[in-house]
Amino acid sequence: MKYVNFEDTGDTISDEFFMKEALKEAHKALAGDEVPIGAVIVHGGRIIGRGHNLTERLNDVTAHAEMQAFTAAANYIGGKYLVGCTLYVTVEPCVMCAGAAYWTQISRIVFGAKDPKRGFSLFGSGLLHPKTTVINGILGEECAALVTSFFRNKRTE
Amino acid sequence: MKYVNFEDTGDTISDEFFMKEALKEAHKALAGDEVPIGAVIVHGGRIIGRGHNLTERLNDVTAHAEMQAFTAAANYIGGKYLVGCTLYVTVEPCVMCAGAAYWTQISRIVFGAKDPKRGFSLFGSGLLHPKTTVINGILGEECAALVTSFFRNKRTE
């Protein structure tokens, strides 16, 4: 378990705490029969953006959990840069979402499960902003199991 | 000048024609003091989606011309895959937009000017879908000049 110190609040909150919030978002996606991936964006110990995958409902490939969380957080802040923020997402961001993360200059990305098919890390670290640090494996098994079980059920429907 | 044959219409329309439409979108961005990049998506000789950069107005890094054009085209079609479509964009797509293009499975990408800083091709061809073909340099000088002039004016403001 990794702990995060927030300078402006003095709080010490674990990455697991916020990953559980991202998992709540993933369950909202699951309830809508979407690939169950969820995300939250945190600044100073507070969640300032949430999102879950809505690609089916919106008929829109850009409606990934992270993209919606970026948009929500930027809207909350009133500015498009997320320096000092952390993205928590249940599955490794894809190329599109890593590319969006680059533009936000977000400080940290914490993800649960690796995506061996389309995870950004397949393409090296250059997709992200050089100032972005990455942690993975937080509640990784739970995050992965949610997606694996979703696709297993799809195949037997 | 490259010509495109559209099986379902029999029309032969040049890539320049649609790049001029993308340039019209770029000029809309310029009028809003946005980095002047524009895009259209074409299917069967018809424009089915348009977009121009709105990152400043929307305070949202995801509001690139291509992303909005993808969303608009998917909305028009009523489905999220853009097989058989061509994206015309005045500047080479970034990593985010290339990642989105991958998910759409779009058949062709035609862009004007290269982006030597964040163009997707800096990261090899793996970011795009293997079935996507790419053409560049269509009205490239005009597309590049629009962006260069925008940033030159910004520096002297």
Largest sheet of chain A: 5 strands, mixed
Classify the beta-strand content of chain A into a percent band.
15-25%
Oligomer: homodimer
Number of domains of chain A: 1
Shape of chain A: globular
- The CATH topology of chain A is what? Cytidine Deaminase, domain 2
The biggest chain-chain interface is: A-B, 30 and 30 residues
Strand order of the largest sheet of chain A: 4-3-5-6-7
Give the helix level of chain A as a range of percent. Answer: 25-40%
**Name of the CATH superfamily of chain A:** Cytidine Deaminase, domain 2
Enzyme class (chains A, B): hydrolase
Catalytic activity (chains A, B): adenosine(34) in tRNA + H2O + H(+) = inosine(34) in tRNA + NH4(+)
Function (chains A, B): Catalyzes the deamination of adenosine to inosine at the wobble position 34 of tRNA(Arg2).
Subunit structure (chains A, B): Homodimer.
Overview of this structure, please?
2 copies of one chain form a homodimer. Chain A has 157 residues and is an alpha/beta fold. Chain A has a single domain, classed as Cytidine Deaminase, domain 2, CATH 3.40.140. Chain A contains 4 helices and 7 strands; from the N terminus they run ββαββαβαββα. In chain A, strands 4-3-5-6-7 form a 5-stranded mixed beta sheet. In chain A, strands 1-2 form a two-stranded antiparallel sheet. In chain A, a hairpin with a 6-residue loop joins strand 1 and strand 2.
Short description:
With 157 residues, chain A is α/β, with parallel strands linked by helices. In chain A, 36% of the residues lie in helices and 22% in strands.
